[in-house]
UniProtKB/TrEMBL annotation:
Belongs to the phosphohexose mutase family. It comes from the Bacteria. This is Phosphoglucosamine mutase. The keyword Isomerase applies. The lineage of its organism: Bacteria, Pseudomonadati, Bacteroidota, Chitinophagia, Chitinophagales. One of its GO terms (molecular function) is phosphoglucosamine mutase activity. It comes from Niabella yanshanensis. The gene is glmM.
Length: 463
């Protein structure tokens, strides 16, 4: 499997040839390139500090050891959160006064994958420009290591789960009292990663005492495909029904994506995680919203109804954050269940998402299912076509753009083509060697038809 280098980080499978996978050599090389950028930006003689944390992957301890040793060898101090979450590391970077952070996680990818997610001094993902500089330095191996008496110090810190939870409890729109009064019964699918520790701890702090945790051993041997999609959450759905729970919660291995299951075992819909949380926030704090252009148009409708303005962005958390800052958005994120609350921190955070969603639900008289029925029923058909290195995607997209030239087209990020009230978005993935084909309509059959039509167009161009 190829090594993927993008604004989402350095990602690859463990095991295999250097340069083709995320080998130990590649971990050291890209960590050193990142360290070189931090040292260049900091100037001479400044003490540099980096916060690191990892999800529960089998390779996590090994990769973490390589990263820590490499940073130390460059004279950079390390604050190691060990088993943690992506949003927790993001919060820890500014609280530690650190120069950056590295999260060791391949997010929703299967267990054989791992990655380096790279943060700046604000705890936000590095820019595309910094990413390009990092790739150049890594390619040239343009970095220097320090003498033995200048090695960086490595310090363990296990206090940030509680600091993260305390910050959530203190966030003004989180209604702990209302949540506790509802006496919710909740089933959590922790997918054998750090959500097994963080999500129950948060729920307990919010006054939720009746919690059932599935896949709670942090082994990295994921019980199912770790992407929180409906076909991967059948155990969660059936357990919610069996246990007569009020709702189910699913997170991905690094706890930045979030989705819910209704009391009858049906999916609330990962696209509607952001819609519901945004509706709650906008009801208390009117303003603007942002989501990437592969996300449901329901967010735009909710935003306009609440008197705000909606702006789409290119796919990728760094792009969403940039657009949120430009438009002064009060809430934003991605339709994959990623919630970004800007005055909390500029990063997808399933934990603050859980607290805000439960605050919203606690303020309603009905069930989670009745809450879902308050929002429009749109369907997004999510598909992909695997690529090999010989395929010229730019040429394929050029031909398809010409074919649909009479339709409104946005080519800021791949191709987004509009068909009356429906749309399809074609783009290469930041994290996998594929073309993603997402389409949305008011009927599932229509969304599937549009997606499959464009997939056939792509396949014809590939032949």
């Amino acid at each position: 499997m190829p090594l993927i280098k993008s604004i989402s980080g350095i990602r690859g499978t463990i095991g295999g040839k250097t340069g083709d996978t995320l080998s130990p050599v590649d971990v050291v090389k890209f960590t050193a390139a990142y360290g070189a950028i931090l040292k260049k930006n900091a100037g001479k003689d400044k003490n540099i500090k980096v916060v690191i944390g990892r999800d529960g992957r089998i390779s996590g301890a090994m990769v973490s050891s390589l990263v820590q040793s490499t940073l130390s060898a460059m004279g950079i101090d390390v604050v190691d959160l060990d088993l943690s979450t992506t949003p927790t590391v993001e919060i820890a970077v500014p609280l530690e006064g650190a120069d950056g952070g590295i999260i060791l996680t391949a997010s929703h990818n299967p267990k054989e994958w791992n990655a380096l997610k790279l943060l700046n001094e604000k705890g936000e993902f590095i820019s595309a420009e910094t990413g390009q500089e990092l790739l150049r330095i890594a390619e040239a191996e343009d970095f220097n290591f320090v003498a033995v008496d200048k090695l960086g110090k490595i310090q363990k810190n296990d206090s940030y789960m509680q600091k993260h939870i305390d910050a959530i409890l203190n966030y003004p729109l989180v209604n702990k009292e209302a949540i506790a009064a509802k006496n919710f019964k909740v089933v959590v699918d922790a997918i054998n990663s750090t959500g097994a520790t963080f999500v129950p701890a948060l729920l307990n702090a919010l006054g939720v005492e009746n919690i059932i945790v599935l896949n709670k051993e942090i082994t990295g041997n994921f019980a199912h495909n770790p992407e929180p999609l409906p076909n991967h959450l059948t155990e969660l759905s059936s357990t919610v029904v069996k246990e007569k729970a009020d709702l189910g919660i699913a997170v991905d291995p690094d706890v930045d994506r979030l989705c819910f299951v209704c009391e009858d075992g049906s999916m609330f819909g990962e696209e509607y995680t952001l819609v519901a949380v945004a509706d709650y926030i906008l009801s208390l704090r009117p303003g603007n919203t942002v989501s990437n252009m592969s996300s449901t148009k329901a967010l735009k409708e909710v935003t306009l109804k609440r008197g705000g303005a909606y702006t789409p962005s290119a796919v990728g958390e760094v792009n969403v954050v940039t657009k949120m800052k430009e438009t002064n958005a009060v809430i934003g994120g991605e339709g994959n269940g990623g919630i970004i609350v800007p005055d909390f921190h500029y990063g997808r955070d399933a934990l603050i998402g859980i607290a805000l969603f439960l605050s919203h639900l606690a303020g309603k008289k009905g069930s989670i299912g009745s809450l879902r029925r308050q929002y429009p029923d749109y369907f997004i058909s999510k598909n992909k076509i695997e690529l090999d290195s010989s395929i010229d995607v730019a040429s394929i997209f050029k031909s398809i753009k010409e074919k649909y030239a009479k339709n409104p087209i946005n080519d800021e990020d791949g191709l987004k083509i509009e068909f009356d009230n429906d749309w399809v978005h074609l783009r290469t993935s930041n994290t996998e060697p594929i073309i993603r084909i997402y389409s949305e309509s008011d009927f599932e059959s229509k969304a599937n038809h549009i997606a499959h039509k464009l997939m056939e167009d792509i396949k014809e161009e590939i032949k």
